[in-house]
Amino acid sequence: MDKLVLPATQPGTAPEKGPEKYHISPTASQILSRDLLGAGIELFKQRSEQINDFAFDNSTLTDNIALGLMTSGIREFPVVNTLRFRNRIENGQMLIDEENLKWEECLHRYDQIEEILNEKQGTSAAAERSQNSRQIELYQKDEPIIMAIDSLFADKSIFSRCRPLRQGELKLNDAELKPPESWNGTASQNYLVQSSKLGITHEDPSYAVESHPHLPLYVTGNRKGILCTWRFGQTEDKSLSQFMPEIDPRQADIRRACIKKIMFNSYGDKIMSNNMEGSFTIYQVECHSKNMRKIPIFSLYDNVDSKVSDFDLVNSDNIICTISQKQKTVKIYDTLLPYCFGRQAQVMEFKLKSGGNILLCNQRKQVLYACNARTGAVTELDMRKNLAQTNQYQLSQSHEITAACLSLSRDTLITGYKDGHVKIHRIDTNYVQSDNLTNVKDLPLREKITAFPFDFRGKKGQVTSIKINKKNGGLFASSQAGVLKLLRTSV
Description:
single chain, 491 residues, alpha+beta, Methylamine Dehydrogenase, Chain H, four-stranded antiparallel beta sheet, globular
């Protein structure tokens, strides 16, 4: 197989300019990623389902991804083994068969294959021979698969960290093999044990999914407003614990109580969520509380405060920003202040002309991005100017933005659209003069990806979620068509 060759560039010079669809010159790694990955590599596909959200294991214990399916509940699968063992076509980018397995079957689908391979490698006389056998196995794959594994999971291309080290293998630190032994002043294991008697299983339909920033733990929100905690790779098909709403879930209206979004603060001791009716709550993460109905430490209610369509963190812990499509307002709250239905905790407000339903905070630039004030538009609000509008970018002329995220370095804006396209835009990273913040018409477009071809009969091309893996920087996206893809290995 021919070796992969990067575009030649002289030291101190910029890479050669790419195709005309780029407004800025991409780097050599970005050109290689674009040419090999194309529209992305399919990791999960179930056409009869809708993937609303997904989450990564942020600890080094597993490489699993948890999915929230609209009707079938939660699915969990290992990424590397999916890349290595699934049958594929189209240069390895498309799965041949769909995933119609239950949660446990999906999680342990490749265990037997991996055991057989490990036994064969264990019979080798030297570790070097075992290493070569794993490399030969990878080189027999398609180029996009090789690049994905080597770029995102370089340690697993030789030896997997998810199993105990054998004699002769690479010496890794114990901290890289397991989550921290203590977190928040308590043993980490206390947060990962069964503490609930409710029989909520992985088959419970879930809409929102989010993982803990440090522990191998993730939280899902179901249609009755209950937040359920799970451990990545757990053996029991039962939720570890729950955060129950103040309203009895048995009497909840699933059209209003369904959890829409979940977010942890940077430390991981607070869970924030909002539901379809527009209510917003913050819970404290505790392992010693035996009370099922946990009292929120902060709440915003639709009947008193603005209906919350979306929210984000302004800092790493207590300052939040919210957007209301109904009241056409953007508000900032300090959740540590004493409050009366959120009014006393409100520190800033801005009235939008046309509303919006997606909100992102660029902490590095101190601005907010409100999406869909007009269809396909992004409004930039400067927090240093009391949320004054400084720019409005028209990223799409005819399609609504349905998902958005910022890169880990806060210098790239990634947006997904109703027609299945994903666009990657460059944004300014540092503080600039106030005069330069205005009269800017467009964001520099780096790349446009046809991630999910639009099906005009089923109308299932919509991008439902876009996220970046904090461990390796990979860009992932899900769609209404029940497909999860790895789009780029870095942004």
